[in-house]
Amino acid sequence: MKTFLTSDYYIVFMNPSKHKKEWNAIRLIMNVSEINYCIFIDYEKEFLEFHPVTKDEFKEYYYNPN
Fold first, then answer.
1. Which one, of 23, 18, 26, lies nearest residue 2 by Cα?
2. What is the pLDDT of residues 3-17, one digit of tens each?
C-alpha cells in the first residue's frame, strides 16, 4: 500500500455497501497513527475519497450539526 496519509485531519466520503472492508483496514491505520477523520456517507460513491484538511476546516465539518 502506498503511503498517502500526509495530514493529521481528513474528510472521508464513502459508500458503506461497497467500501466496508477497505474502510475498516484504513480506519485501523488512522486510529493507530492518531489521524482525525470525519466520515460522510454517500451511497452513490464508487470509490473511497480522502480529502486532507486543516485543523480549522476539520472542526467546521466535525462540529457542524448539518
1. 26
2. 567 789 999 999 998
